[in-house]
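Query structure, 143 tokens:
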């Protein structure tokens, strides 16, 4: 075992840290793996074991301190591209059949939808443009 250089052991450690990264999807293991690669570089440059461990710790902790908050901030953001019914909210539609609190029909995004007015006392006549505020099942709620 003494015939194998220290940098090889650090690379083996980095690969070993990559396994739980893939299995658990915890990015911290990847950051530790990068720290192990940095320690392997230090070992290849001829630094002693204490400095290698110090490089591993400093790089790993720095990555966790810098990358984790950035990743957490990005995971909380809503996607910029709205799809499905979220993409229809806020769009304009044209009334095909009178829409009131009990129902009606509109043309929304090239498709015919059942619709009802948000304000049950309000009615929209054929040809009038309305705004979609919500989708409940297959019914558009309009104002």
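Result returned for the query:
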């Amino acid at each position: 075992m003494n015939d194998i250089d220290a940098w090889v052991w650090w690379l083996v450690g980095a690969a070993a840290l990559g396994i739980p990264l893939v299995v658990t999807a915890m990015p911290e293991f990847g950051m530790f793996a990068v720290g192990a690669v940095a320690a392997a570089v230090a070992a290849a440059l001829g630094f002693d074991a204490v400095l290698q461990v110090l490089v591993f710790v400093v790089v790993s902790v720095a990555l966790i301190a810098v990358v984790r908050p950035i990743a957490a901030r990005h995971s909380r953001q809503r996607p910029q591209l709205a799809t499905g019914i979220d993409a229809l909210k806020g769009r304009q539609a044209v009334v095909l059949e009178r829409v009131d609190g009990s129902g009606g029909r509109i043309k929304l995004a090239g498709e015919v939808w059942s619709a009802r007015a948000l304000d049950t006392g309000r009615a929209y006549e054929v040809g009038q443009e309305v705004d979609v505020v919500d989708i409940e099942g297959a019914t558009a709620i309009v104002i």
